[in-house]
Amino acid sequence: MATDNHGLRGWARRHEIVLYLVLAYAISWCIWPLVLLNPASSPLVPFGPGLAAVLVAFWAGGRRGLINLLRQLGRWRVNFGWYAVALGVPFAVPGLARLAAVIAGAPAPRWDPSDVLQIAGLIAVTIVIVGIFEELGWRGFLLPRLQLTRSALVSALLVALVWLPWHLPELVSDPGQRPLVPFAIYVVALSVILAWLYNGTQGSLPVVILFHAAFNSFTKFFLAELQGGDQYFVAWWTLAGLGTLLAAAITIYPGHRSLVRVDERGGVAGSAAGHPPS
């Protein structure tokens, strides 16, 4: 036991947040130089945050730490209302952003029944490529560890602080896809909303993953054809504004400590995430 506490595992446990961030960035950014050879390729490895979480959880906590991390993926038995939020909000906010763009002069969208299958397929793919790979790390690993010593709001903002620059390769490779200032505001707001979902469901990653995937998918569905025009910026500023209003409401109503109205766990989500004991 002494060797475990004072050897490599003990060192990893004491520095697990730093180790996680270094690995998440190193893995995610490792192919960025290859974009110089193939500009059409992706500059970002999407599974970086998730793989980093798995590696550090096992390094710092052994088999038990890894199981506790992955167990969150199986916490799908929550009140149906959370799933309604996880699909409803991501549909409504980008939909209102598209409406703002139409008011600003964008053409009204024309959809047909096949679009339902398209968006369903897009969400399914995004759940795997974006949702699981990112949220296992950002919310499954990093957020609960920050919340052990900080309020939920501060922890959510700290996650946003490292989550935003993680997107840098994509922002540099295609600056027109995500306007920087509204995107930065959007990421901060989304980080607060996702922390609320995570804490409110006592660490249900399926709900968090569904929300993230649905938000990305509906945003792409509603706004993709506007890219390159002035109305695209209107839509993104609307996204940022509505996201900020939601994040503010979430913070004000239940309070900044836990971001949930009823918190029988004392406002700390670490126990819900199965944080390995030190």
Into which percentage range does the β-strand content fall? under 5%
* Structural class assignment: mainly alpha
Beginning-to-end CA distance, first to last residue: 12 Å
**Secondary-structure element order, as H and E?**
HHHHHHHHHHH
Helix content class: 55-70%
Low-confidence parts: 263-278
Radius of gyration (Å): 19 Å
Number of strands: 0
Largest sheet: none
Mean pLDDT: 89
Shape: globular
Oligomeric assembly: single chain
Number of helices: 11
Provide a descriptive summary of the structure in words.
The protein is 69% helix and 0% strand. It is mainly α and 278 residues long. It has a domain at 78-252. Helix 3 (16-29) crosses helix 4 and helix 6 (114-147) packs across helix 7.
Short description:
This protein has 278 residues and is mainly alpha-helical.
Explain the layout of strands and helices.
Blueprint: H1 2-6, H2 8-14, H3 16-29, H4 48-71, H5 80-103, H6 114-147, H7 152-166, H8 168-173, H9 180-200, H10 205-223, H11 230-252
Q: What characteristics describe this protein?
A:
single chain; 278 residues; mainly alpha; globular; disordered C terminus
